[in-house]
Amino acid sequence: MDASHAHRHHPVFCTVVPPHLLDKAARSADSRRADLAQRTLERDSLLRTRRRVTAVRGIVPTLAAPASDEPDRTIYDAQHRTRLPGKKVRGEGDPLSKDATVNRAYAGLGATYDLFLKGFGRRSIDDSGLALDATVHYGEEYNNAFWDGQQMVFGDGDGDLFLDFTVSVDVIGHELTHGVTQYTANLTYHGQSGALNESMSDVFGSLIKQYSLEQTAEQADWLIGAGLLGPNVTGVALRSMKAPGTAYDDDELGKDPQPATMDDYVNTHSDNGGVHINSGIPNHAFYIVATELGGKAWERAGQIWYDALTGGELAENADFADFARLSTAAAVTRYGDGGTEHQALQKAWSAVGVPLEG
Description:
Shape: globular
Strand order of the largest sheet: 1-5-6-4-2-3
Number of helices: 11
Radius of gyration: 19 Å
Structural class: alpha+beta
Helix content: 40-55%
């Protein structure tokens, strides 16, 4: 990547819990729930604004020695404050911490690094050995986790609607994949390109979980954030790639609004044009491809998605149809025309109502 191109790569602020879900909680009749959700929304809004202000600096490529095949992880403890990064509590190769949250964050960074290296030959987020930093115990009962363009940050949750945000390795992988997208296609975080950005994070977050558990496509649960919802929530996860729209149906959080096909595409001005909602469509397409091909989803389906994301032809403002065509072309390039991979791509995009022509 040359320096001039790098300066166009503006990082965005991406949270794993979408604002529409927190908006619902902020209207709760339970004053504690409402207050905590509102506090999280206000913190997210402040951080999002700060990200836009600082993003004009762009990203300068690392001019260092060739990247090694080992991660460089550092975990910090915000000690329930909001100043980043916080106090360093575990570095690369350090022994286990007495704090399980620190250890889960450290392991999640490692699992993400391992999949991208061993699955796709990518050395960290930027493919140049970028250090992986994460801060835990951010704020007080903060109900989110985010990638701020430079590092991962995890809240502890309120123990009611959400639990500790390090409990789901796919959430960690989801947020770090925003960094991979930032350094490659740099998909604009709005509308269909923003939904693709979110979907990339769900796809690779799910693959990181499957890789770490040694699961096949058939064995995987295809849920994003399983185990994250609190004991008082009626639901199983934040999102379902297998069945978008079914992850939760709760009195406080509402019903999962994700569509599985273009027939139910949601036109909205909120959530940057529905980036966390309409991502269900490309998510479901990936699920269909992975289960059609079977076996380990990162080996063929994931490789096709990675090729399309990093191939240099995916425009920043790409829509679903653009990605459908590029992913299908990537399948043909790598595996041949008319093979099972090509057929799986055609079936998947047809099933979700995204055209491959035009």
